[in-house]
Specification:
Blueprint: H1 2-21, E1 23-26, E2 31-39, E3 43-64, E4 70-78, E5 82-88, H2 94-100, E6 105-111, E7 118-128, E8 133-137, E9 142-145, E10 151-154, E11 167-189, E12 191-201, E13 207-218, E14 224-233, E15 249-253, E16 261-265, E17 268-279, E18 283-296, E19 298-306, E20 315-317, E21 320-326, E22 339-346, E23 352-360, E24 368-375, E25 379-392, E26 395-406, E27 412-419, E28 425-430, E29 435-438, E30 441-448, E31 452-463
Parallel strand pairs: 1-3, 2-14, 12-22, 15-18, 19-27
Antiparallel strand pairs: 2-3, 3-11, 4-11, 5-11, 6-7, 6-10, 7-8, 8-9, 12-13, 13-18, 14-17, 16-17, 19-21, 20-25, 21-24, 22-23, 25-26, 26-31, 27-30, 28-31, 29-30
Length: 465
């Protein structure tokens, strides 16, 4: 009887020790809330809540289904008293399984190439896996396994330091039990967003519609299902900012009629999507941020050239095609995240045609936007110096001729600028009204009639410092 009590006590102590050492595992199925704040710098803040039913004596909690690219030093935990945390990122794969068995015994199975049936079993110990598998067989001989070998390695177990999913392991300060509501927040890389715009010009080219799409790129290592999404726009100061990577899948998701809620926070702008969405691993998801109609736009040409040298040889250029509009109410008036604007126009049949694209920076309300679409086909500018006279060692006079040809059937607005070699200059005469754009720039704002040539001549005196 006494021996029985001793055995029962020993068994109880053994079971208690096993319970204390047991690991409680929690997966994504225990999440009750998941929200993300995604930054356009390749990072995201993840906030999740889990309900854990801890058995008595729990001292270790394994939180699975966290991003493979989590920054564990940013982890904040509420709901558990944690003494130590570890991030197990060594994931189970054929290669890691092989590497973790170096120095350990395994079984080798020889299989038929035709039927796949196991024909022979052998025991061996893995010596090295550098460029191939090197084995010491049970008879002491050394063997190697190649990719085309009929032999396969059979493992009896998975090492404890290998995980099938990225896992955060928590060691508690004291044993816990019962229902625990745990809230986690942490940063992860591999998850970012970018902004793209589609601007469609009306037939007359005086108005346009603008639609903004945001692209969320998930390369974090896991999927986020039914997540609340917020997007923060702005240039954050980050240490060791990650380089953006190209995703492989794209999913288009049309937004509901409601636009994301927007607010200003700490000098940045935060957009909150009014619906939950799934972000799959290795997926680009596009969501509509907003759309606006009847935005007044202005089309014009801009041509800039350096005035230098004494040569009378003609300098021929093609002006840039520009599109300008104001980010003002009532047509627009929104903080616009940085991104690429792609411009489309309509041909005579009403078909959309791509006209060019340009990148904009973060644009505040009431700022002016200017898009460069390419070079003009119909307008050419020729400049030449027709006269040069040296007045003194540092002073001279020149006569400049500019000839503009507009081969288009439409009138064109041209912003013309000559960049001067000195800030000390004066115009003696000009056939056209000129503008001092800057201390070193002389310009003309011109309206070119259809299919006409326009000639400008000006004389100026330039003094070198």
């Amino acid at each position: 009887m006494k021996l029985t009590r001793i055995l029962l006590a020993s068994l109880l102590l053994l079971l208690t020790g096993n319970l204390l050492a047991a690991e409680y595992r929690s997966g994504a199925e225990q999440q009750t809330r998941l929200s993300l704040t995604v930054y356009n710098a390749g990072r995201a803040l993840v906030r999740e809540q889990r309900n854990l039913d801890l058995p008595p004596g729990s001292t270790r909690v394994a939180l699975m289904d966290v991003p493979q690219k989590i920054l564990p030093q940013t982890l904040a935990i509420d709901g558990l008293s944690v003494r130590e945390q570890n991030y197990d990122f060594d994931l189970l794969s054929p290669q890691t399984l092989l590497q973790k068995h170096v120095g350990r015994s395994v079984r080798i199975a020889r299989r038929s190439r035709d039927s796949g049936e196991t024909l022979e079993w052998k025991k061996a110990r893995i010596l090295a896996v550098n460029g191939g598998v090197i084995l010491r067989m049970e008879d002491g001989s050394i063997e190697t396994l190649g990719a085309d070998s009929r032999y396969r390695i059979v493992y009896d177990e998975v090492p404890d330091n290998l995980r099938e999913r990225p896992t955060l392991t928590l060691k508690l300060e004291q044993p816990a039990e019962g229902r625990k509501t745990v809230r986690l927040s942490y940063l992860t890389t591999g998850l970012g967003w970018s902004s793209d715009y589609v601007l469609e010009l009306a037939r007359d080219g005086r108005q346009a519609s603008l639609v903004n799409w945001i692209t969320i790129d998930n390369r974090s290592g896991i999927a986020f299902d039914q997540a609340e999404i917020q997007l923060l726009a702005g240039d954050l100061n980050l240490v060791n900012r990650p380089s953006p990577r190209r995703a492989e899948k794209v999913m288009m998701a049309m937004a509901d009629s409601a636009e994301p809620a927007r607010e200003s926070i700490g000098g940045f702008h935060l957009y909150s999507l009014p619906w939950k969405t799934d972000l799959k691993q290795n997926q680009k998801k596009q969501l509509k941020l907003f759309g606006r109609q009847q935005i007044p736009v202005q089309r014009l040409l801009r041509d800039r050239a350096w005035l230098g040298g004494y040569s009378s040889q003609a300098q021929k250029t093609k002006p840039e095609l520009l599109l300008r509009f104001d980010n003002r109410e009532p047509a627009l008036g929104l903080p616009l995240p940085a991104g690429v604007v792609r411009v489309y126009g309509q041909d005579s049949k009403g078909n959309a045609q791509f006209l060019g694209e340009d990148r904009i920076g973060h644009t505040a309300v009431n700022d002016e936007l200017e898009l460069r679409l390419g070079k003009s086909f119909d307008v050419t500018v020729e400049r030449r110096i027709t006269d040069h006279r040296q007045i003194s060692k540092k002073q001279y006079r020149i006569t400049r001729e500019i000839v503009i040809n507009n081969g288009s059937e439409n009138a064109q607005q041209l912003n013309l600028t000559d960049i001067l070699p000195s800030r000390d200059w004066s115009v003696l005469s000009s056939t056209e009204q000129w503008i001092k754009r800057s201390p070193e720039e002389l310009g003309f704002d011109l309206t070119l009639a259809p299919k006409t040539r326009k000639r400008i001549e000006y004389r100026m005196e330039i003094r070198q410092p």
